Amino acid sequence: MVEAAMRMRPEDDMTAAPARSEESGAQVDIDHVSIEFPKPRGRGTVVAVQDVSVTIRKGEKFVILGPSGCGKSTLLTAIGGFIPVTGGEIRVGGEAVRKPSMKRILVFQDFGQLLPWRTVTSNVTWAIRKRWPKMNDAEAQERARHYVELVGLGAQADQYPNTLSGGQKQRGAIARAFAVKPEILLMDEPFGALDAINREKMQFELNRLWSAEEEKVTIAFVTHDVNEAVHLGHRIMVMSRGPGRLREMVDNPYVGSPPHDARALQLVEDLRELLKDAKT
Ligand SMILES: Nc1ncnc2c1ncn2[C@@H]1O[C@H](COP(=O)(O)OP(=O)(O)OP(=O)(O)O)[C@@H](O)[C@H]1O
Ligand SMILES: [Mg+2]
After folding, report:
1. Are strands 87-92 and 95-96 parallel, antiparallel or unpaired?
2. This prediction's pTM
3. 66 lines ligand 1 (CB under 6 A)
């Protein structure tokens, strides 16, 4: 249950000290990847992702954008190693992904990701200890506190998840994810269940958090919200439905721009048009 809540598992060799620089922010090669699921009663297969080839660069914020059901979550969970690909290969830092790892953390929409019997700080410390079992207590505590402060949860550090708002719970999950220095942070509509104001606030916060890290975390972020994609993504991969293919890769020079920036708004409009197309 614990493992399911975090969607990550330690790897056998995960006993070393905190990440060496080459461990974090690895490049992800998605190489002719197809993913199929069996249909019920042996009636063939559903093709969720078809022949997708794309590279996620070390240290970038990469957005996967597409209509509902186009295969975004499927692709993201395959990058995490939670489901197998049925064709092609996914490599992280040159190594084929075959199983989940503490180095690839998934944060998703659900507000129930923190362990309910641990405080905010203790949730983060717990993950740090799993990631680096040999780290001493004082160092783990200090690292946890640093990330709890960084996400703005300093005042709630000793509270249990059931006493937090939805947005605060997501901040906690994000603090935990950043604290274990993943080589890639996988985010599946993490702000999807927040109201519009909090959602926008969290987008700013995520940009700020990413910028604050000396060594930039590689983030793959799934959304069907075009504004969110333009606010967050250095590059935006637009997927088409039926079955999920790469429709277009879009470079986004307006990442992090204020929401009223005219050029960013034009890109939002262009992407909306692309998505309309992608639905057919
Ligand atoms: N475990 C599964 N078994 C069978 N089919 C699945 C499974 N998971 C996903 N699918 C199918 O694969 C396709 C892609 O699903 P996926 O969840 O990746 O879409 P998505 O783009 O994340 O959609 P949304 O924006 O609604 O979250 C859908 O047709 C879905 O029904
Ligand atoms: Mg999804």
Report:
1. antiparallel
2. 0.89
3. yes
